[in-house]
Amino acid sequence: MRKLLTAMAFAVAVLPMLATTASAGQFSIGIQIGTPPPPPPPVVGYVPAAPAPGYVWVGGYYYPVAGRYAWHNGYWARPPYAGSYWVAPRYYGAHYYGGYWAAPHGHYAYNGHAPAHYYRR
User: What is the pLDDT of residues 51-68, one digit of tens each?
Assistant: First the structure.
């Protein structure tokens, strides 16, 4: 019992200090109990005509937000660079992997909400 109280007192003393350092950098603590459910089946819809040559269809997909899945409608997009192709988001092994534009030299990450950014893999 004494060890438990000592650990709790340490946590109460240290966590506020971590909160002040977290504003200066990135810090996170996560606890997951159980396996999250997979997303629902995709919504079936139609694909409208392309707006112009050079556009590719990005099919609709579910993405996790606040403990649930939200649907992102499909859309036409211009690939960010020549030779790139869209790799759809997927759910595998109880983990969600976001979609991205891929090519032999790297890929653009895209989360559906913020502008895409480039980084080498």
Answer: 999 999 999 999 888 888
Which tokens is 49 given? 């005509």
Measured CA to CA, the distance from residue 2 to residue 23 in angstroms comes to: 33
Rounded-to-integer distance, Cα 48 and Cα 36, Å: 33
pLDDT band at residue 118 using 50, 70 and 90 as cut-offs: very low
Which residue reads 């109880």 in tokens?
Answer: 94
Alpha-carbon span 69 to 63, nearest angstrom? 5
pTM over 0.85: no
CB 70 within 8 A of CB 62: yes
Q: Where are the beta strands (DSSP E) in 1-121?
A: 56-58, 61-65, 68-72, 75-77, 85-87, 90-92, 95-97, 100-103, 106-109, 117-119
